[in-house]
Every structure is written in structure tokens, then in C-alpha cells.
Design brief:
706 residues; 3-stranded mixed beta sheet; 58% helix; alpha/beta; 28 helices; single chain
């Protein structure tokens, strides 16, 4: 029996293959580029020229702290490490100032509001072991709104599954049947699960393009936790229709929906400071933009012709498939002559955030490996210089943690050396005058204040922007509430910063010693970590804070005061980590009016609709494999998605044989599930014949008749 929603059409559309050749990184493709406009040129001067000037000033002033000469190796190390870190924070500040060259509010691009949408767009959502209720609920919400606006024929929804968990696979196919039935007659929906998930997310997209890319002009790439306002999606399509050279149009996703301390902290900071930072990035990159992997519209044929990713030589973690593929795809499509743009006025673009410090660290581990892989891609021939800068910024974002750590260690060692080791005033017995140790403490305090000012500049500008615009201030809950949240965000982030520094430093160590990150599903739901696990995970962090802190307090209490936020954050790391994912603590912050965002304070109609739809589909998240043997309709829906998912290799053939044998020998379906290995369960779920044999087991029939 086939479900009515699936009678007339299969789970995937007719084949429309589009070739996606692997790109040669040593060849320079023929391409023409428009010169950067004056606004972009000015922004680049402010961002890069300003950072260079500030770095020179920082280096000069730090040299003067030592009397313009570094007498020891440690002093030379401190000067070098300080210069690198100062350059990093200087660039973050001047990048913010570059955004101010065009004002505090983004300039909207004119479009023809009532013009017909020319292209066919696939709303593509790659999923990997995700909760279908949230993902399919978001797709349903967007599909219904787009069809209500009269654009149902211009869009198709395409779920690209790489799910390995059999239970989640079942829930996906049930969710797909629900989604297709809900949007029946309004928007077409498709579902494809890969038997072999080669190349991870980038391979998932490549498989889609090579099999059905010729069917579409554009694809809107989403993450499993993405939600976009249909008006924003429509605007993006109109802008791409109007710009035939545009290859990728990136929106600025805003974090939303978090209920834990960590997610609320991230989404408040992203909502307040993110637009300012994004404005600066957009200003200097111009048409040499970047791709963040989701919530972006892509011209399919340009992407197919330009973005086939090669397998990197060598062993993992640097070799193999490209992990952080989005940066690379943006660089390659731009190399081929297509424009890549980020429009910061595209509001109505949201995503979720990791719910706890541990979940954030798991995601960072994967991102760190992917970004460090880019060291092999920086020399790619034909790249535009901003594309190389994007690579270097991504690499630096993770290398800065061990650099900060080395800076702290060298600084503390110098302090201890100064207090413990008696200086030699006459290192040469023949010299007439002593060598007085030089350290300009007053200049060092001034330099520290300058560093903190540059570090906080994006946050200060974000706050000023929100306070200056009455509507935005009101959407944050008012000026006093905003100021209180801003203050607490700075204080709490300062406590988390040293923990994240050590976590990322460990990631870098693991990567350079050859450990691969693997591929695990992202956690979306928060929970309070048990105390035992919290102390086990962070015992090293506590020890690192306790031992140097105790020594500094004993021999140099003044210097210990400067490092108080670092030491306190490490000492409290188990508590901070546990609280980071606690939904009850997050709810308490919400009741106290802390870290509220416009999406939370005044929930938009789209979010309200999404919540209702998510509740409607929530039962799907409770389905278990045994339900297939007890519900013929559910079994029929699942089998209807298997038409184009059969990729049988020798291990799968052996698993199919052993699965049938175990099912035949088992007393019933439940016992058979217990006997089957994970590989055999996956093979069974991918075979309508074996599923039918299992579901129609004589014991199941007797149970049903009884």
C-alpha cells in the first residue's frame, strides 16, 4: 500500500544531470573582473591600512617598554607575540570602522518588487542525524509562506540526507511524507538519502547537482537549523535575477531560538555586534565576498562549473576531503569571474547555535581542522587576494588561541624571572657603567588600555548603534535593559574566554599531531552537565588556573590582579561549563531580562508559525524502528523513498544475507532488531524486500491478529 501523497510521483524528480568537474588548483581560469568601486577601495584602506598603522604603533610602543632593545630571548618572544595579537585586534577594530564609512545602517538595493521570478530555485537542506521535527517544520513554514505569496511554482524543497542513524532515517522518511502531504498542490518536495556519504556536506551538494542540478537555476542552501523569512528569500532571488554576474549571494544569519546560557549569550552578542561586524566585512570585500555554507543563494550552473572540490593530497587531518568547503567554493567561483556578495540589509535570516560550551567546542574542533586545511589552499593559482585573506583570517581565528596562551606564559615567566632572579648590572667585568633593567610600566599600562579599547570597539559601536536608533533600542527591550545585558555579556564572555582559549589550543595541538575530527551530528538541545563530568572535563583547566595563580599571588599580587579574569574563569570552569547548557538557568536569565533579542522580545509571526508546525510534527520524533512492523502506512511511506537509494557493495550484500537469516531465525520482529548489527539494520531499512520480510514475520502477524 502506497501513501496517497506518494502515489503519482517518486521521492526524487526526474534526472537532470549537470557536470561538476574537479577544479585544477594549479591552473588559472580565464576570467574578467570589474574593478572595485570607490566605496570598497576606501573601506579596504581603512581596514587594512588602519590595521597596519596601528600594528606599527603597537610594535613601537612595546619596544619602548623595553627601552628599544630586547636583551633576552624571552623579551624578544614577548615583543613578537604581542605584535601578532595586537595586529589581530587592531584589524577587528579597523574592520568595524570600515563598515562605518557607509553609515550605521545598511543601504538597501533597489529591486522590482512585482516582477516575475525568472528562475527555478531549489530550497536545499542537507541533514545529518538531525531532529526532523525542527528541520522539516522550518521547511514547511517557509514553503507555506512562499506559496501563499504566489511563488509556489518558483521553488522546490529538496532534503538531502546523509543520516546514518537508522531511527532518525525512519523519522526523516515519515517527516518527508508529512511535509509532502502538507504542501501538496502548493510546492513540490523531494527527498534523497545517500547510501555512501562521500565528501560530507560538500559531497552531498555535489551529488545533488550532478543528478538534478540541470533542473534548477538557483539553490538556496540551508542548514538543518536554518529559518528564513520568505520575503527575504524572494528578495534574494530578485537580486540574483537582476545581476547575471552574481554567483553567490550571502545573507547575514542571526542566531535565534536558544534557551541556555551559552546560546542566549551567543545570540545576544551576534544580534547586537554581528550587524556591525558584518557591515565592515561586506564593505571591504565588495564583490570578492565569502560563503558561510548556509542561508545563501547560489547560481547552480556557475557553482557546478567552478566549485568541484579536489581531494587534498596527504593523510588526514590536512589531506582528504575539504572540510570547510564554503570558503573554498567562494574562492573558486570568484576565481572563475563570478561575483560573490554579502548584502547586510537582508534581514529575516536565522540559524541556531550550540547550546553549551562543550557543544561549541565540538563544533570548533571540526571548524578548526577545516580552516587549518586552508593552509594548503592559500597558494591556489588565480585566486583574488581577498579570497586569500578570507583563508588567512579563518586560519588565524584558531591559531590565535595558542598564540594568546604563549603570550600569557612568556609574560608570567618574565614576571617571575624579574622577581626571583637577581639582575646582573655588570655582565662584563671591564665595563664602567651598569646595565640598568628597563621596563616602562606606565607605557605598558597605556598600551594595555589601548589594546582593550580596540578589542571592545566593535561591542561599543554595536551598543551605540542600538541606542541611537529608537526602533532598534525598543526591540532590545529599552536602553536600560540593553545596557544591563551588554555589561553582563562582556563580564561573562571574559570568564569563558580563557576556557575557550585552552580548548582551541588543544584542538590545534591535536590537528598538528595528526588526529582527525571525525564527523558527528551537532547537538541542538541543552542540558545541565552532571557535576562529575564537569570536573572531569575541566580538571586540567582548574589546575592551570590554580597553580600559576597561587604562585603569582604569592610573589606578585599586583600582576595577579591583571590576570584575575583569566585565572577566575579557569578556576570556575566546571561551574561555567555546567551552567552553559542548563535550560533552567537560561530561563532564569530570560525572566531577569538578560540577553533578550528582538526575535525573543517581539516574536515574529514566522517564528510563531514555526512553533505551531513543530508541535504538529513532534510525534515523528518519537517514532521507533519497531513501529515499522506495526504500522503498514508508516512502512509504505518509508519504502516509497527507497526507489533511488540502492547502492549495493560487497559488505552490504553480506549484511543483507545475514540480516535475512537472523530475521528468519528470530522469534519476532522485536527480537530480530536486537540480533541485527547496526550495519544489518541499515541494509534492512534500505531494502523494501527485507523490510517486508521482517514486518510480515509470522510472530508479527499473530500479534496483530490477537
Amino acid at each position: 500500500m502506497t501513501h496517497p501523497a506518494l502515489k503519482s510521483v517518486g521521492p526524487t524528480p526526474p534526472a537532470a544531470p549537470l557536470e561538476m568537474p574537479v577544479q585544477d588548483l594549479r591552473a588559472v581560469p580565464k576570467a574578467e573582473f570589474l574593478p572595485a568601486d570607490r566605496r570598497t577601495q576606501i573601506a579596504r584602506v581603512v581596514a587594512f591600512g588602519g590595521a597596519a598603522v596601528l600594528t606599527a604603533v603597537g610594535y613601537d610602543q612595546m619596544s619602548l617598554v623595553f627601552g628599544n632593545e630586547t636583551r633576552t630571548f624571552l623579551q624578544g618572544m614577548l615583543l613578537a607575540l604581542f605584535t601578532i595579537t595586537f595586529a589581530w585586534i587592531a584589524f577587528s577594530a579597523t574592520q568595524t570602522l570600515a563598515g562605518l564609512t557607509a553609515g550605521l545602517w545598511p543601504q538597501r538595493r533597489p529591486i522590482q518588487q512585482n516582477a516575475k521570478l525568472f528562475g527555478k530555485t531549489a530550497i536545499v537542506m542537507p541533514v545529518y542525524n538531525e531532529d526532523p521535527a525542527a528541520s522539516f517544520g522550518a521547511l514547511s513554514t517557509m514553503g507555506e509562506a512562499l506559496s501563499a505569496a504566489g511563488h509556489g511554482d518558483a521553488f522546490e524543497i529538496f532534503i538531502l540526507s546523509d543520516t546514518r542513524d537508522p531511527t532518525i532515517w525512519l523519522r526523516e522518511t515519515a517527516g518527508f511524507a508529512w511535509l509532502r502531504a502538507r504542501l501538496s498542490g502548493r510546492m513540490r518536495c523531494w527527498y534523497r538519502r545517500r547510501a555512501l556519504n562521500i565528501g560530507r556536506k560538500s559531497g552531498n551538494l555535489q551529488d545533488f547537482i550532478e543528478r538534478w542540478g540541470g533542473r534548477y537555476d538557483y539553490m538556496l542552501v540551508l542548514d538543518a537549523d536554518s529559518l528564513m523569512d520568505p520575503a527575504t528569500v524572494e528578495t534574494m532571488v530578485r537580486r540574483m535575477d537582476a545581476a547575471p554576474r552574481l554567483g553567490i549571494l550571502q545573507s547575514v544569519p542571526i542566531l535565534a531560538g536558544g534557551v541556555t546560557l551559552m546560546s542566549r549569550l551567543q545570540q545576544f552578542a551576534g544580534r547586537l555586534y554581528g550587524p556591525v561586524i558584518a557591515r565592515g566585512v561586506s564593505a571591504w570585500q565588495g564583490l570578492d565576498g565569502n560563503f558561510w555554507g548556509h542561508n545563501a543563494l547560489i547560481r547552480v550552473r556557475a557553482f557546478a562549473a567552478s566549485c568541484g572540490l579536489p581531494t587534498l593530497p596527504g593523510r588526514k587531518p590536512f589531506g582528504g576531503h575539504v572540510l570547510s568547503h564554503d570558503f573554498v567554493e567562494a574562492a573558486l567561483i570568484r576565481r572563475a569571474g563570478w561575483d560573490v556578495r554579502m548584502d547586510t540589509d537582508l534581514e529575516g535570516s536565522w540559524e541556531g547555535s550550540p547550546p553549551s560550551l562543550v557543544d561549541l567546542a565540538v563544533r570548533d574542533r571540526r571548524w578548526a581542522q577545516g580552516n587549518l586545511q586552508h593552509m594548503m589552499l592559500v597558494p591556489t593559482r588565480g585566486l583574488r587576494w581577498p579570497s586569500r585573506v578570507h583563508f588567512l583570517i579563518g586560519i588565524g581565528a584558531y591559531l590565535m588561541s595558542p598564540i594568546w596562551l604563549f603570550l600569557l606564559v612568556v609574560g608570567m615567566t618574565l614576571t617571575a624571572q624579574t622577581l626571583i632572579v637577581h639582575p646582573q648590572y655588570f655582565p662584563d667585568a671591564r665595563q664602567l657603567f651598569p646595565d640598568w633593567p628597563v621596563f616602562d610600566a606606565e607605557r605598558m599600562v597605556w598600551l594595555f588600555a589601548l589594546s582593550m579599547g580596540l578589542l571592545l570597539l566593535p561591542k561599543v559601536v554595536g551598543l551605540i548603534r542600538a541606542l541611537c536608533f529608537a526602533d532598534l533600542r525598543r526591540r532590545f527591550g529599552g536602553g536600560l535593559r540593553l545596557l544591563r545585558s551588554w555589561t553582563f555579556e562582556i563580564l561573562i564572555s571574559a570568564l569563558y574566554a580563557p576556557i575557550q582559549m585552552l580548548l582551541q589550543a588543544r584542538h590545534i595541538y591535536e590537528i598538528f599531531t595528526g588526529r582527525d575530527s571525525g564527523w558527528s551530528a551537532q547537538s541542538r538541545d541543552g542540558t545541565a552537565m552532571p557535576w562529575g563530568e564537569a570536573f572531569a572535563r575541566h580538571s586540567t583547566h582548574m589546575l592551570i588556573g590554580l597553580v600559576p595563580g597561587s604562585i603569582l599571588i604569592a610573589i606578585a599580587p599586583d600582576q595577579a590582579a591583571w590576570l584575575a579574569p583569566v585565572l577566575l574563569g579557569l578556576l570556575l570552569s566546571p561551574l561555567l561549563s555546567r551552567l552553559s547548557g542548563d535550560t533552567r538557568f537560561g530561563a532564569g536569565l530570560q525572566r531577569a531580562g538578560l540577553f533578550g533579542t528582538p526575535e525573543e522580545i517581539e516574536e515574529q509571526a514566522l517564528f510563531a508559525q514555526f512553533r505551531r508546525v513543530e508541535e504538529d510534527i513532534a510525534a515523528i520524533s518519537r517514532l521507533e524502528l519497531l513501529d515499522l512492523a506495526q504500522d503498514p502506512v508508516l512502512l509504505s511511506r518509508h519504502c516509497a523513498t527507497l526507489q533511488q537509494t540502492t547502492v549495493i557493495d560487497r559488505p552490504a550484500q553480506l549484511a543483507a544475507i545475514t540480516a535475512r537469516a537472523k530475521i528468519a531465525a528470530a522469534p519476532g520482529p522485536a527480537e530480530a532488531l536486537e540480533w541485527l548489527t547496526p550495519a544489518e539494520v541499515s541494509v534492512m531499512l534500505g531494502s523494501a524486500e527485507i523490510l517486508s520480510f521482517w514486518a510480515n514475520h509470522p510472530a508479527a502477524a499473530r500479534s496483530a491478529s490477537a
